[in-house]
Specification:
about 280 residues; mainly alpha; 10 helices
Length: about 280
Amino acid sequence: MSTMTAPTRFGLPRTIRLGVRRIGFELRQYFRAGDQVFFTFLFPTVMYLIFATIFTGDVGEGADKVSMATYYLPGLIAGGIFLSGVQGLSIEIAVEKSDGTLKRLGSTPISPATYFIGKIGEVFVTAILQMALLLTVAVVLYKVQLPADAESWGLFAWVFVLGLLSCTLLGIALSALPRSGKTASAVVIPVVLLLQFISGVYIAFSALPEWLQNVAAVFPLKWIAQGMRAAILPDSFRVAEPGGEWNLGLVAIMLAIWLIAGFILSRATFRWIRQSG
């Protein structure tokens, strides 16, 4: 009579090494999925092209006046971060649960850590490429003047990294919500779209009712968009923010809270599916 044993797990160095190798596999799978490439990777750029073409003219006063193409750029960057981390990853993992991919992986020696190193690496690489494309379109087609000082780019970098990490962990947690891969898009996309509209991605945040601003302030997208506005727009635009300031300390605190919450939720909700005997 034979007994089944759990697959032997690798040590930490090999786990990390296999996870890094898996990033390449995840990227190939990502770019082979045409619908995912459009609705996650290209979507922010497509929406930016639409908004920057339709809404022309300038906003602001005096030397701090900027084009509408510049004004919409921070929100679309924030929206792209949210799409990459939350929408793209949650649907991707939900589909892999449904089609048996996780069950097959669960019978191999690789650990969940290896799997998620690959996923997080995929999200970061695609998000960086997505931002590069969006910024290139803004500069080349609409002559947007990007910040020239290191301080603004440092702000851009930490908001990008902290925001993307938070959204990635939330995407892992949200993948537990759909009942199947077929319903994943129907469950996730409306939530993501709603948050984009109330968080300053498509509509100026200051134009929203106060109660809706308060709702948006609970979620990370609002804070990512606020941080990106601080990095890209002239400092005088801070008067349009709640309290008349960029509140970058609060941006960092809220994103850190969501990073911790995302880690706890992802650990609590993710199940490594193994093949049963």
